[in-house]
Every structure is written in C-alpha cells, then in structure tokens.
Write a structure and sequence with these properties.
With 131 residues, the protein is mainly β. 3% of the residues lie in helices and 47% in strands. The protein contains 1 helix and 11 strands. It has one helix at residues 109-112, and strands at 3-7, 10-13, 18-25, 34-39, 46-51, 58-59, 68-73, 78-83, 92-99, 118-121, 125-130. The strands form 2 sheets. Strands 2, 4, 5, 6, 9, 10 and 11 form a 7-stranded mixed sheet that branches. Strands 1-3-8-7 form a 4-stranded antiparallel sheet, with no helix packed on it. A hairpin with a 6-residue loop joins strand 4 and strand 5 (46-51). The longest helix has 4 residues, at 109-112. The radius of gyration is 14 Å and the shape is globular.
Length: 131
C-alpha cells in the first residue's frame, strides 16, 4: 500500500498558478502510474491528469488541457501538477492516487480517468481560485 501526501494547495486569484506535489512512500512508486483528481462540494470526483510509470505518457481532460501539466520524479518519489491560468471552476480538493496495476502496459485515457483504476489515495489539498 502506498502512503500519499499532497501539498501546495492554497488561495489564488483567477489567472494565477499553483504547483501541487504528491509525495509517495510504501510501494515501488516508479512501477505505478499516478493520477490527479479533484472534487468540489456537491460534485463527483473528477479526473485531472495521469502519468505513466516512466512519465512518457500523460492524459488530461479537455477542461484542463493546455493549462495543467503533470510530471514525476521517480528518484524522489514525487508527482507534481503545475496549474496555470487558474479559473474559479478549478476550485476543489485535489487528490493524487496510485494505480492498482503494477507495471501497467496498456494505457488509455478512458482507463486512466476512472477513479476505480487507482488503489491508494492521498487526503487531498484544497485549491481555491477567487474571481
């Protein structure tokens, strides 16, 4: 089981930037894909980004594509989410999560965007974008 801790959230004005970080321990982190999700009050958990074990493959929904960028440093067991041009609708609690499948070889946006694909979740970090 992986233990995940998110950091970097906060309050930012529309158009601003934040960089979230997810620090992992417990599993062989570099052997698993990682995803970021978010959840606003009254809404379901929403896919934000995913990255393969090597970092060569990434996925984003249209709502954040071109504004958010996911990256990982396997030597440090961290996955970051750089968020630019933030909008009020980006306000949510952001979670990182680790894939259930070790050394996944098949990647698709459909698979990686499903919360059920992931086994371990962090406790989240709040991002608030003011208008």
């Amino acid at each position: 089981q992986a233990h995940l801790v998110e950091s970097g959230g906060g309050l930012v004005q529309t158009g601003g930037s934040l960089r979230l970080s997810c620090a992992a321990s417990g599993r062989s982190f570099s052997a698993y894909a990682v995803g970021w999700f978010r959840q606003a009050p009254g809404y379901e958990r929403e896919f934000v980004a995913a990255i393969s074990q090597s970092g060569n493959t990434t996925y984003y929904p249209d709502s954040v594509k071109g504004r958010f960028a996911i990256s990982r440093d396997n030597a440090k067991n961290t996955v970051d989410l750089q968020m630019n041009s933030l909008k009020p609708e980006d306000t949510a609690v952001y979670y990182c999560a680790v894939d259930r499948k070790l050394l996944r070889t098949y990647f698709s946006k459909t698979v990686m965007s499903q919360p059920e694909t992931y086994a371990d979740w962090g406790q989240g970090t709040q991002v608030t974008v003011s208008s």
